[in-house]
Amino acid sequence: MLNQASPSRNSQLATRNSQLATRNSQLATRNSQLATRNSSLGPRPSSLVSQQVSNPIILVDYDPAWPRLFDALRARIAEALGSLAARIEHIGSTAVPGLPAKPVIDIDVLLASDHALPEAIARLARIGYTHQGDLGIAGREAFQAPAHDPAHHLYVCSPDCAEFKRHLAFRDLLRAHPDQAKLYGDLKRSLAAQFRDDRNAYVTAKTEFVSRLTDQALNRNPYP
Question: Structural domain of residue 213, as residue ranges?
Answer without folding.
Answer: 66-220
